[in-house]
Design brief:
heterotrimer; A mainly alpha; B alpha/beta; C mainly alpha; A: mainly alpha; 70% helix; 0% strand; B: alpha/beta; four-stranded antiparallel sheet; 11 helices
Chain lengths: 321, 346, 310
């Protein structure tokens, strides 16, 4: 009953419509009313996405502060990094020694920032080596393709099978530990992931049409790699570099902890942690706490920034990261 | 042509024959919650499928045809999809209020889905046999050997040679056409009442397309299964559909039996679709596209959704939604041009 | 498949060969002879070394003897303790290290995969963010830092666990945790990422459309595919756990091979260093080989036929 009335009502309403409404009003051929958004470049849109990532920004800020402090704190501190002062042994944090002192009376605050220098330097060198060797090797291999590519990848497979840290330890023992030897040891296998990544990118990109177009205009290999392939592969390369740094910092700390790294009296976070191990039973918590905190925070910050970069540069992967 | 108000008439004609339809969707409205707001993906969709018949749902991307099939299959994402009105009756049972456990009793057993892309629809790490039998073992509690026999039977039904060997093989060992047949065979394992085929031939070569379509017709003749065929390809429709529903911007705009649709399309959109199909006897320069784009379903337009692109639009079209008008024998169309006051076409 | 196994096997042999050669070359690059240390070496030690390394023979002969020794698992004498050989140290210490490493690997694998799957299934909800946050912290704290912190807080501070040695199961808790956390975090991240990829695949929707139970869809269809890339990671994880045992054993004073190795580094006991390096390298390379084989067996696309080298 109700429905019948309702449909009758609808029929009445329809019949009551004025006749003018039934005049033709054909669609114009103008463009649809979808608003055109201003076009945004790839890097700009990546920066916008990064800006919306509070965790990554906070960590980036932390890293900037870390770098500044690492450069200036040892210079401005009244305490020496290496001088021993046996009257001030094992003092807890105070207004005099902000982070306390260690077993030999050295100020932990200034040593921590000196250690920051070491770690950041090692991280930076590792990323640079990664970039230079990895990009060159991978880029060349990918671009050349064919037998060259296969051979170069075989070499990589064998190198990849080498137990990284064991080889490094071996080299350190033989060459004598120092900062220089750490850097050299890291050049051995650190760049393999980067090489593979770049090769993959190049393989993908070199078949793109804009490359064929460039080559049809007579562009040389180097030119194509530099102007067309690298800028497009830059995103993943950057991410990889950012994520290499924490593992380099880890490697340095690990080696120092084993006594194979930076030698006394200089400080690196690994060395400081190792020293702190000796006094662990006596409750001098600050000797371990600060180097441990800084290693972890620094690695954490680089990881978060690296993840954030990856999400920003390729949001498709964001879901799967 | 008289104006007959909806909704009663649309469904009355369907139940004139003594059998109620197998599937009856009435005024189904559905929206998705997204970051940008609500997308009104389905707006009062109505259609029905009788037992043993093939209904083709035609539309462009974004018309809502795939969403409709997901709604009938119970594959809508629960977190973001909200049914805001209407009903889906399958064999007299209301589907819009089902809980997940209840859906699982229907899926694969009474209603089965055939996927678009056979290259990705099969699990690469399981054998064909495992993928074919798991459904029937769960739903019908077959033993391993019963399931195996049924699988072999189904493989023969879809025209695959050497079925015993196939059961042990993995998907990557087979060609695209064979994989699609296997996908169809899997769908048939529990003898469903309704097959939903979502663009089943889009990912295949043209020659294989014809074979698959013939297979559908053959299966329907032998098992009496009803088929809901989703496609954007009118050639496919002409091949095997009994009836056709044309969807645009989340609504059904026209429903007719296949012969009537092709010979006397009533809705301007349908007419434009048919006109845009290239023909060998046309001059090359006269390809007719439909200008413009479908409307944004975040804010569906008042009035007829096609008005902005319609060459025959009236002033009323962009202001008020057109009523449903019944046509011959179970067909209907949603268009103001059916109103007696509308100008006759030239 | 056979070709695949053969390739991997040859690769493995090649790598071990390179390492052995590398250690040999390095040994002879050390300024002076291996006898050069602060401590005086006795005649007994010198005799031992000369006999084992055939030092009075020509270089190529020495090399061949060295290779032969390695192949027969004979790693030479120790300098610090002239009565012991590397083999004795290995026999004594390796079982302990193996137990520690295995426990850590199993713990990391089971928990990492479980957490990763959980995070993927509850994508973007609280559990997902929580797991991922913990995972990033987990990969950021070096295992030796974690170990020292655990001792400082849970052992010295709260007295819940003993700080050293390896005697009772209670002793084993902290070292295993310290060693397992980072691999667990890595596994959780990879599992989650792989699972998220897999869950968007058509065959998962197809499995759901068959009305299968959610459990079956996730495990039988989801994990089977998602775990393939995870398996390839297990090799490198085993390597990092192995090197991790060095520092963990040192910190917790566990009498394992790792600790002997670290001691030998401090005392510059070159033969022990060399021998242990080669032995451990061989183990790691073998593990990578096993992982490759496992992957080949589990992925039907490889098991049945390889469509050419990648």
């Amino acid at each position: 009953m109700n429905q019948h009335t309702k449909t009758e009502d609808i029929a009445e309403d329809i019949a009551a419509l004025p006749i003018e409404l039934f005049e033709p009003a054909p669609a114009s051929t103008q463009a649809s009313h979808h608003p055109m958004r201003p076009s945004v470049s790839y890097w700009h849109s990546a920066w916008l996405r990064l800006r919306d990532n509070p965790a990554a920004l906070a960590c980036l800020l932390f890293l900037i502060v870390l770098i500044v402090m690492a450069i200036f704190a040892p210079m401005l501190s009244v305490w020496s990094v290496t001088a021993q002062d046996l009257k001030s042994q094992n003092m807890p944090p105070s207004s005099l020694h902000w982070f306390g002192t260690d077993d030999l009376g050295r100020d932990i605050f200034v040593r921590t920032w000196y250690g920051a220098r070491i770690s950041l330097f090692v991280g930076l060198m590792a990323a640079l080596i990664d970039f230079v060797i990895g990009v060159t090797y991978g880029g060349y291999s990918g671009y050349k393709g064919g037998k060259t590519d296969i051979a170069m990848m075989r070499v990589l497979e064998v190198l990849y099978g080498l137990p990284y840290l064991l080889v490094v330890i071996l080299l350190m023992v033989v060459m004598g530990p120092s900062l220089l030897t750490i850097i050299i040891a890291l050049t051995i296998t650190g760049w393999i992931s980067m090489a593979r990544l770049v090769r993959g990118q190049v393989l993908q990109l070199k078949n793109q049409e804009y490359v064929t177009a460039a080559r049809s205009f007579g562009a040389s290999t180097a030119h194509v790699i530099r102007r067309h392939l690298l800028p497009n592969a830059m995103g993943p390369i950057l991410v990889q570099m950012t994520l290499t740094i924490p593992s380099a910092i880890f490697a340095e700390a690990f080696l120092s902890f084993l006594g194979l790294g930076v030698q006394a009296p200089y400080a690196s976070w690994g060395v400081m942690a190792n020293d702190a191990l000796g006094v662990i039973l006596s409750g001098d918590w600050w000797q371990l706490f600060f180097p441990a905190l800084f290693i972890s925070l620094t690695m954490f910050a680089f990881n978060v920034v690296g993840d954030g970069l990856q999400d920003a540069l390729d949001p498709r992967l964001g879901k799967g990261k | 042509m008289t104006v007959k108000p909806e909704p009663l008439d649309m469904h009355a004609s369907a139940s004139q024959s003594d059998n109620p339809p197998l599937l009856a969707i009435r005024d189904l409205s559905l929206r998705f919650r997204t970051y940008g707001g609500y997308v009104h993906a389905l707006r009062q969709v109505s259609l029905h499928i009788a037992r043993g018949e093939t209904l083709a749902i035609v539309g462009e991307s974004g018309s809502g045809k795939s969403v409709t099939s997901q709604a009938v299959m119970g594959l809508l994402p629960r977190a973001t999809a909200h049914i805001t009105g209407g009903s889906i009756l399958f064999d007299e049972r209301e589907l819009t209020t089902l809980k997940p456990a209840q859906w699982r009793q229907l899926q694969g057993r009474r209603i089965a889905l055939i996927f678009q892309d056979p290259m990705t629809a099969l699990n690469p790490t399981l054998t064909i046999g495992e993928q074919m039998t798991e459904g029937v073992r769960r739903h019908l509690h077959y033993t391993a050997s019963q399931a195996r026999d049924k699988a072999i039977q189904m493989l023969e039904l879809v025209g695959i040679s050497g079925p015993e060997q196939r059961l042990r093989q993995f998907p990557h060992e087979l060609s695209g056409g064979m994989r699609q047949r296997i996908v169809i065979a899997i769908a048939l394992m529990c003898d469903p009442d309704l097959l939903i085929a979502d663009e089943p031939t889009t990912a295949l070569d043209v020659t294989i397309q014809a074979q698959i379509l013939a297979l559908f017709a053959d299966i329907q003749a032998r098992t009496g299964v009803a088929i809901m065929l989703i496609t954007h390809d009118l050639g496919v429709v002409a091949g095997i559909a009994d009836r056709v529903t044309v969807m645009y911007a989340g609504q059904c705009v026209e429903t007719a039996d296949v012969h009537t649709l092709f010979s006397h399309p009533a809705h301007p959109y349908t007419q434009a679709l048919l006109a845009s199909v290239p023909r060998l006897d046309m001059p090359a320069a006269s390809l007719k596209a439909i200008a413009g784009q479908p409307p944004d379903l975040f804010a569906p337009p008042a009035g007829c959704a096609f008005a902005a692109r319609c060459a025959h639009a009236l002033r009323v079209c962009s202001q008020i939604e057109p009523p449903v008008t019944g046509l011959s024998d179970q067909g209907w169309v949603r268009c103001w041009l059916q109103d007696p006051r509308a100008p006759r076409p030239a | 498949m056979k070709k695949y196994i053969l390739t991997r096997f040859l690769l493995m042999l090649g790598t071990i060969f390179i390492i052995a050669t590398l250690t040999f070359v390095l040994m002879h690059l050390i300024p002076g002879t291996p006898f050069d240390q602060e401590r005086q070496t006795s005649a007994a030690v010198q005799d031992n070394l000369r006999a084992f390394y055939k030092l009075d023979q020509s270089l190529p002969v020495q090399y061949l003897h060295y290779l032969k020794a390695i192949v027969t698992f004979d790693y030479g004498p120790s300098i610090s303790n002239p009565d012991t050989t590397v083999n004795t140290l290995l026999a004594r210490g390796f079982p302990v290290s193996f137990e520690l490493g295995l426990m850590a690997l199993v713990a990391a694998t089971l928990s990492g995969i479980a957490f990763g799957t959980l995070a993927a299934l509850r994508h973007n909800r609280l559990i997902d963010r929580l797991v991922m946050a913990v995972a990033v912290v987990g990969i950021s704290i070096p295992n030796f830092v974690l170990a020292t912190l655990l001792i400082q807080e849970l052992s010295v501070g709260l007295g819940w666990f003993p700080a050293a040695t390896w005697r009772t199961p209670w002793h084993k808790v902290l070292p295993v945790i310290a060693l397992a956390v980072t691999p667990m975090a890595i596994l959780a991240r990879i599992t989650r990422s792989s699972m998220l990829d897999v869950l968007t695949q058509d065959y998962i929707t197809m499995a759901r459309a068959k009305g299968l139970s959610p459990w079956r869809v996730v495990i039988r269809h989801g994990l089977r595919n998602a775990l393939l890339p995870v398996i390839t990671l297990l090799g490198t994880l085993a390597a990092s756990i192995l090197t991790g045992t060095f520092v963990i054993e040192k910190i917790f004073a566990i009498p394992g091979m790792g600790r002997y190795f670290v001691d030998s580094i401090s005392t510059r006991d070159y033969p022990v260093i060399m021998g242990t390096t080669v032995f451990y390298s061989a183990i790691l390379v073998f593990m990578l080989f096993l992982v490759d084989i496992a992957y080949g067996l589990l992925d039907p696309r490889i098991a049945l036929h390889r469509k050419g080298q990648s």
